[in-house]
Structure prediction request, 422 residues.
Amino acid sequence: MKKKNSEAVPGADQGLFGELPPPAPAKKSGLLAFSYSKLSLYEECPLKYKFKYIDKMKEEPKYYFAFGNSVHAALEFLYSVKAPPFPSLEETLDAFRRDWAAKSYLEKGYRSPQKAEDDCRKGLAMLKAYYEHNRRSFKPPFLVEYSTDVEVDGLLVRTISDRIEHLGGGELAIIDYKTGKDVKRQPLQLYMYQKINELDPRLREKLAETYGLRVSAVKVRQLLYYHVPTLKEYPFERADDKEIGAFWERVLGVADGIKGLKFEPTPGERQCAWCDFKSLCPAFFGGHHRPADLPPPEAVKIEALVDRYGQLKEKMADLQAQLDEVAGSLGRAAKDGGEYAGSQYTARVKKNSKWEFRDREAVIGVLNKFDLYQKALNLTLTGITSVLESADLPEEARKKLLEQAVKRTAFDIKITKKEGLI
Prediction:
């Protein structure tokens, strides 16, 4: 099952719902593998394009890609039928759950399991609403998740259409799902689909296979964005020759820039806000590529440091979440504790218990009532725990404190690197 990305850089090879396999290699020497997402990214920032597609720099996982991907997987499952009956609502929701469970919350780009769980519930509710809203109009589509690579003007252009309906006589409607914010959208991505699908000889073959219909050419009659969260449809009429011509000149201009190795950065608030490559970018840090209208390096330095500090803090939070997850798994695997050796490290695991208290104000009330505040060493967790576990604590006070307490299993893990390893 193919997967598409979210809407940060909408397009054909990234799409809206998650990472897709890389574009097929060029069939002829000199062809540039191209797509709408590459067009969008290059126009946003040529240097960012270079980092991603030429230098193959890894980006951080984005939770909105993962969310959109799972919604898309469920819709693909729903429509991948040749004839009724369609999958039930519960089967469709199970398709979402299966895709969602394929990765951990960290792999999906979430910083906490709670946020991932919240989005899981949101996705299930969204799909249920979609199913109920459209169930009376379900019909098998012509094609679902149709991927094609077409050679044109020195490019090998890939498009992936979420759903294609046959309107009769070789005329088609292309539907593209959106799962992000409900914003005003331009039809340029759909123009790319129109041009490439009309040039694609395989579509004529598939019309013959599916409907026994032989046509000299296919024609895209309708273009539609479907916003799944709101169930809104945003239709566009077929682009005329003038619109397609202007759009294609824009495509060829970007292709010339890529072929000419023109990768100057174009910094700006929108371009830089969610860029994973800021630490590598000379413009962001006031280097030689800084445009003349930007403040001098000394003026932007503190801004760069603020953002760099924030990025590192986020990475620390991510690493801490991963460390906590692995520590919990290691502790559970170690059971009662002991010493365990990996290929590079040795771990000494000690199992113990710790108290946690739900309501600080309620705890303070209990301590004051029984004149125990000073014994708790001014309300430190260690101090309250020592009071709770002391032998001379009045039973009524113990009972009141236990009402606010939760006892959890904790693991003290000490790691030592093996000798000879650097």
Observations:
- Residues 338-417 form one domain.
- Residues 5-27, 286-300 have pLDDT under 50 and may be disordered.
- The two ends are 42 Å apart (CA to CA).
